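Figure S7 source data.
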Amino acid sequence: MTPDRHRLHDHLLDPSGGLVYHLRALRHRHGRWAPFHRVLAGWLAGWQPGRRELVIVGPSAGYGLPTGFLARFGRVTALEPDPLARWLLARRPDAGRLGFDRLDCLAGTDGLARLAAAHPQAAILFSNVLGQLPAPGGDWRPLLARHLAGHAWASYHDVISTTTAPKPDCAGLGVSDDGSLEAVLARFWPGGTLPLTDHDTFRLGGERPRRYAVWQIARRRWHLVEWADNTGAAPHG
Ligand SMILES: C[S@@+](CC[C@H](N)C(=O)[O-])C[C@H]1O[C@@H](n2cnc3c(N)ncnc32)[C@H](O)[C@@H]1O
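Tokens for the predicted S-adenosylmethionine complex:
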């Protein structure tokens, strides 16, 4: 049995999801969110982990997942504490092979190890969740490297958030960039000081190639989102 510390408890008013998130999605998913969701659809189409089983962590109702994405896998397990999100996710047309698990894989420094042990053959998708929760021990990178090195995992996550508008032509732009955080920010924001919240997730996948896009989540709030893909051979060096 899962010990209580690793049990995913229901949260309807979670700061990183819950009712507020559903109301935002209702309002923006076909408008402000759509350009980022188009970029995300491209990232997910390019992600071919070669596994029949998918574990998706923090999917909410699957607002960012393109139609048909869940049907790519023979078995899908979602880890999601929001009961309304689970209810909505299960009603997607592509959710035929979807089930839910109660493991909180983001709790404690051994949460990801438990996830790996419970789903040894699965591909794992962290669905905009790692930039939302503080990492046990302060940093997700060593935990991912230690516990999931042998897994095909990918993550899209907030790197920074800000109330400063990016350059006007950024909506729907996805870029590959191996530069510093400052260099990546300069691709999207005009020069000068950028007041921001750092989500401590830059280069979450280490030295592997990474991609970036800006997501306008609300009228005056933008996130820089990173796509990290741990699938396939590690780069040399
Ligand atoms: C910012 S939302 C992202 C929702 C969705 N993936 C998207 O991209 O629109 C973060 C999600 O993570 C979920 N979450 C929070 N803590 C979690 C945990 N410990 N394990 C799994 N999911 C969690 C929240 O309920 C919420 O649905």
